[in-house]
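Re: the 82-residue chain
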Amino acid sequence: MKIARQIQTPQPKSPQGFDREADILLIQERVPQAIKAYEQALAKGAGTTGFIKLHRAILRRAIPGQRTKSSPTGSSGTRRIW
């Protein structure tokens, strides 16, 4: 989180710091805060990748207990949210 804030301070108009902060918050299961940070990144021009990350975070909020996976199916064969 410290590095994300260090990016934000000298480059307040850049989406990178907010994107990194949101990634960290999402890993920490702090989904509402991550959504706000992704929204800030989008407002600063994060582009398609930022939109996809925001969408993924919103889905995690809508479907509690879902975690992001590197594969489309979990070990039980059920569909997972990326």
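Residues 70-74 have pLDDT under 50 and may be disordered.
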